[in-house]
Structures
1.
Amino acid sequence: METSRREIAAMIMLGGTGAALSSAKAATPATEAKLVHHVFFWLKNPGSKVDRDQLIAGLATLKDIPVIRSLQIGVPASTEKRDVIDASYDVTELMYFDNLADQKAYQDHPIHLAFVKSCEHLWQKVLVYDMEIVAGD
Amino acid sequence: METSRREIAAMIMLGGTGAALSSAKAATPATEAKLVHHVFFWLKNPGSKVDRDQLIAGLATLKDIPVIRSLQIGVPASTEKRDVIDASYDVTELMYFDNLADQKAYQDHPIHLAFVKSCEHLWQKVLVYDMEIVAGD
């Protein structure tokens, strides 16, 4: 069987385009994920870099929970000081889920429960915002 | 020139892989963006669907500001009620920026200023969290 270079090129482009579309879809949390779970932690010892880093390391273990579409861990950014900005927290985690059921599965997942058990002595306050995405890119 | 089916398949897979890698990089805001700007709004008329939709439409205009790497607009999700969850807000926006300078450029951008001017009569309270990403996918 003979196949021309042009036919091969067309097949490669087709293969490439298909892969690009599907991977772009998978890589953008906002495209399919419909739920954002944003948690803020205030440490018992806010001045302790050791406690902060231990909490950050604990949060990093959560990435192995399969239902999490995207996970970011952060600290207050050095943006301009304004009355409307709350920069009093110490550590924050931001996660994307596809739906409510996946978020519930995350809450009950053994890795999440192990994280709470090993790190809850570090924080004095937790505040959670759950957001259903209604528009975006 | 003759090319075997196996060779063609290999070329397609190669083309596919290359496209997938480059598009994954471009499509994930968290990979390159280092700053999350999360804003919560409490409406003056929390029961008004008209006011809520007007605010959501106003927020949607922000997507044309070039420094925004990713923008999601949302409302409180119907997750389990828990003491640590604040679901009292009406509308929220979540944005990714590459750095502090881009976030400042957004604050000063004419489209942002026009949004504030046209929508600020709708809200009674705004609360902002700015997060510097220190770990994540």
2.
Amino acid sequence: MDVATGSLGQGLPIAVGVALAGKRLDGLPYHVWALCGDSEVAEGSIWEGIDKAGYYGLSNLTAIVDVNRLGQRGETEYGWDLEVYRRRFEAFGARAVVVDGHDLEQVDAALAEARSATERPTVILARTIKGKGFSEVEDRDGWHGKPLPPDMAERAIAELGGVRHLTVETRRPESGTAARPAAPARPAAAVEVPTYRRGDEVATRKAYGDALSALGARPDVVAMDGEVSNSTYADEFARAHPERFFEMFIAEQMLVSAAVGMSVRGYVPFASSFAAFFTRAYDFIRMAAISRANIRLAGSHAGVEIGQDGPSQMALEDLAAMRAVQGSTVLYPCDANSAARLTVAMADLEGIVFLRTTRGGYPVIYEPGEEFAVGGSKVVRASDGDRVALIGAGVTLHGCLAAAEELAAAGIPARVIDLYSVKPVDVDTLRAASAVTGGRLVVAEDHYPEGGIGAAVMEALAGEPRPPRVAHCAVRGLPGSGRPDELMEAAGISPRHIAAAARSLLDEEVRR
Amino acid sequence: MDVATGSLGQGLPIAVGVALAGKRLDGLPYHVWALCGDSEVAEGSIWEGIDKAGYYGLSNLTAIVDVNRLGQRGETEYGWDLEVYRRRFEAFGARAVVVDGHDLEQVDAALAEARSATERPTVILARTIKGKGFSEVEDRDGWHGKPLPPDMAERAIAELGGVRHLTVETRRPESGTAARPAAPARPAAAVEVPTYRRGDEVATRKAYGDALSALGARPDVVAMDGEVSNSTYADEFARAHPERFFEMFIAEQMLVSAAVGMSVRGYVPFASSFAAFFTRAYDFIRMAAISRANIRLAGSHAGVEIGQDGPSQMALEDLAAMRAVQGSTVLYPCDANSAARLTVAMADLEGIVFLRTTRGGYPVIYEPGEEFAVGGSKVVRASDGDRVALIGAGVTLHGCLAAAEELAAAGIPARVIDLYSVKPVDVDTLRAASAVTGGRLVVAEDHYPEGGIGAAVMEALAGEPRPPRVAHCAVRGLPGSGRPDELMEAAGISPRHIAAAARSLLDEEVRR
């Protein structure tokens, strides 16, 4: 299975995801082998990985740790103290086998033992000597990741026995067992998108859970969560399809790795947690993009809107981080009907797809049948005489609507755009809004000012012959704990602030 | 010590940083106590933390794990299996003590034992019952993080023995021992900023190492690295001031936590790794901002410029992520003199400060005496007749200079701005450039297009009466492996592309 693992500590947890698919979903007799360096065993993600391998009894997984003692800049933390590694891996639920990594009989015996039935993963701890066989570099520091100069290379080849041509015959997997994707045997039932009545107050995270559960009619859809499924509403899927739900507990790096592992086996994974906690796995998400993995991440409880739980639980930099991931899609619906539709659409998207959902319940504003294209937007309120456009997504869209009412009462017609597709963004609709309003745009977002929805709008239109003016309502200070409406007011993203920002664009023009 | 730990698995590693300061720097007899939940023990960062506590023999650290069995949505991974926890913590180098967390004598004995001398940290594993003492919720699921309704609260108080007023006398620390900041006893020597000769080719990461080493004259400056100090050049500090250098091995979450822990003890920490690998600790950086910690992060090997090592090692989303951190400062110098000056300036900045450095050597363009204000920029080339401004930072500044030469040869005078302070950004200089050039700006960056230097420029000027047009050269596809110049050419950020972007701004105007 091809995955990118150049950032250390990622190979093993991703292999755990592949092995979990093999054991619980594929039902195929393949074995997953993960090669690890000794330096990378210092990464916490290695322990998240082997812990879950032990918890799920993944006897179809073997990690081989190459303990050569030398890291990039000197000796590793534990050098050749194989017993430290053995104790740790055993304590985390693995069968550990220590071998001399240069003794082929020991290696062969260990690999055979790894395939013998247990209810545990196996970790082969191979004591090796870096550069073995070439006396000029063998076990010496300072040769990490460096090619040998040509003359040394010549001497190395000579000392290793000269140029040889070895062909190793391997047993090919039986036809189909390693096929990708793993075609689920059961036929897919139709996915019925859940719908909501206009005006009802429903949290978008609830719509996510409803839609994910409905998506479970597709046998290739799997879900995992980081011990918050009763908050993200992934628990609806867990109840409906327990055999395809994987509890990863509070280990977000492993959560994303499991999704990557299942993605490379051809499944359609949805991983959920609080949006803030996906920052814990940012390196894994970045690397998943390099792997060309197709994973769907649903981050709930975004922004100051969450209220009382305070800033540690508030995602306020997630849109910037997720937009910057290569080839990503970033969605942020404002109501339950759009959230449900977009959740279902996510199943067929490629790359890293991030859905941001809101904690509180807000009125459903769309009719059940409405469609939501990825890369699109909705002009929720418009007239030919619009003097300003209010652009929001998620919770601030409701603020934009209230601000438009306030402006209308003062004789100022305002367009309102629901920018639910933050990336890719609907350039045409933004361009049209800029043209109609004389380039007066207000962007309101429950996010820090850098790199979020404001930047998405600016980046989309900065190359225009006449770029718009953008008044930007965003969270600028460090928020505290309070009621959602109090915090949005304090942050400067309430309807009052959005209307004031619109007025400022109009007022300044009068003064000029 | 006040630190924010609402994101799970962060309290212990930060406490390790505080204890490391206590043992290795303060030389004070304080003991550090970290309270952990059982759910958070699933986070890999807990194991990075206790591993380093064991490695550094932090007998002045005690973690107390409240094993109440119930997480937010049901039973934790290991419930009340205290032996699993004991084996793991012991294997990771701690002394583990299992107690009944409701038996005050056992708790008292364990706390006393924790203070007895060993060369290891202590972990007290306290078996507890969630909600103990109130029969309606005791050991029951579904009460995580929920206040009791008023009537239940009344009954709980009654069952717990009624309203009581308890005053516990604690022994105050001896005067000064808990003082913050820990005033280092040695007087500071003057910091001599290293300088470089104009035209010499020097990597900015090398200038970072030189300047950091010089900063070591200040006894409050400490440094730590994630086993890549021979690449980040933090090894220069390690050689000059070994007693204030801390090797964190390949564990970036612990790397940042150590910096946070030392920051709250009043030290001035500089943590370094490849810029790409700080994504591994993004949640820790976000939380450090909430802690109001003052930490300095130096990320080397940014962008496609690193060449052969491939995309896993290329930071291409770091500027977006770091800019979005509340109150952060983001610096990206293009030459060795500015890099050295800015490194020294970082020591006196508050909050999260990120310095991005480049792998390759590029010509020194500034004189040794030149000053670089944080929040400033340098107009490197300018005339009153400039028709376009080329804005770069780091490696692309050199591309902007080459492009300006090319444009000059074609009769197009171009201004060049070194935007070394990406956040805060120099709005005045950008505004002036926009005014002089008729709003024609080219931004070139070795970063994905979202949220980086382009967004910084756009966000700065989007509210202007007439915002500029921005032509944006950034890395849009997934890069591969190759020579730096090949990859910059393939990504569309070479001098040729920058000049073409400038021409496109001028040509389109002609066509209109």
3.
Amino acid sequence: MPRIVVLRWGHRPQRDTRLTTHVALTARALGASGIILSDIEDRKIRETVNKLTRQWGGRFFFEMGTPWKEAVRNWRSTGGIVVHLTAYGENIEGSNVLEDIRGSMRDVMVIVGSQKVPREFFSEDISDFNVAIGNQPHSECASLAIFLYCLSEGKTLARSYQGAKIRIIPQKRGKKVVENKRFLSDDG
Amino acid sequence: MPRIVVLRWGHRPQRDTRLTTHVALTARALGASGIILSDIEDRKIRETVNKLTRQWGGRFFFEMGTPWKEAVRNWRSTGGIVVHLTAYGENIEGSNVLEDIRGSMRDVMVIVGSQKVPREFFSEDISDFNVAIGNQPHSECASLAIFLYCLSEGKTLARSYQGAKIRIIPQKRGKKVVENKRFLSDDG
């Protein structure tokens, strides 16, 4: 699997708190290595996400405040490609864009914007692919989820998380949770 | 394709406005016939969703205020099944739950809750299936998106919307939007 990093652009504190938190948790649950909240800081979200990662395991970084141009430039300089998720892009259904991205065998930065993104996001200077999860307006959280699901062909949904203090045992009925006493005691 | 209706449970006005709006738009874009906001009314969200449907086409109903038990009872009385999306349920990756749902050939109500749902949601009286989009905590919006995507095997993302006043022509670069003058003039 390629390494995947999500860049969240256009976050507005307060107004977007819950949505950006959902975007970050979706990135984590669907196999991304981390998220960059560009151009702005939001310590509350970082705390929520990092706390959840400590409990539920695995590695997931939360970076914030980096200017988006710098984040993209750094990523591209390491050979990674950039996918901009936008309702205006090539529809994953009815185009080969997913196959082209997978075929590149490169690491992927996924840019997730909000309603009005800078025009530059669409240009070759920034994005290698403009990808639409359908061409109807809906949700950046939904788009990210489906894109990451498709990229891994669903495999990331079944992976295990190293060092988890808590995990769910899937069941047909009811809730079953196992706590890992060893890791729990590490943390008090 | 079966008829799909989403039941959004536990919406809190203000706090959940944007997230519930995203859940509704995701339902619409991924092929649901409509959404029921149970137990509560939120006219602002209904207005946003209905306005978007008038512009972007297709049929999509927004019902609100119906007690969840009543909505589930009505649905079941017409022969539909109920799928409760929950991180505690059977993981779509590594179980046959999706095949079982598709194999039932029945219409599907999808219950999308928030953090703490009534215990009854897990029981046979309410849900036919408890389905997890992975067993990690993330987002009801992401879960709904992936579930609907899988149920239709992606096909709903390419469908056309009857009577659309505006639609996007997918492109590799930039934005291309077509306005349907005939439908535009119908509405002034």
